Amino acid sequence: IRDQLEAYFMIFPLMVRCAAARADETEIKALQNCIVTMSRAIVAKELEPLKEADGEFHRLLAVMTRNRRLLPIMEELNSGREIIWEYFIKHDQFVNSVIFAGYVEMVNALKNKE
Q: What is the mean pLDDT, run by run of 10 residues, along the chain of 114 residues?
């Protein structure tokens, strides 16, 4: 898991930067829909919708880069992330809100092309 997280945090910021430059309004709205689903799942403590929305969020970001090679890389890096959500949804509402706030900030930055 350590190697997976390290690789994720090495690649993810660059992917988001690229996505910000290339995303269109429809894609950003799709990310916002993922956030709404995630928010509802966190409040309801429903793991499956949370995992699905998180996976779709990351898939969309990879697609937004317009780089075909990034999608399989992101899918590989996302495998196993459900372990993280499984822990947090059961144990730590504060961390959930911090992580969720990061997703919201990211979408706002994408909207502003930042």
A: 83 91 94 92 86 92 95 87 73 69 85 83
For residues 53 and 37, is the Cβ–Cβ distance under 8 A? yes
- Non-local (6+) Cβ contacts of 51 within 8 A are 81, 82, 85
In the DSSP assignment, the letter for residue 80 is: T
Distance (Å, rounded) from C-alpha 73 to C-alpha 76?
A: 5
Listed in sequence order, the residues at least 6 apart from 58 whose beta carbon sits closer than 8 Å to its beta carbon are 74, 77, 78
Cα 4 vs. chain centroid, distance in angstroms? 15
The rounded distance, in Å, linking the Cα atoms of 97 and 19 is: 24
The C-alpha atoms of residue 94 and residue 97 are separated, in whole angstroms, by 5
What is the spatial distance between Cα 10 and Cα 4, in angstroms, rounded to a whole number? Answer: 10
33 in Cβ contact with 112 (< 8 Å): no
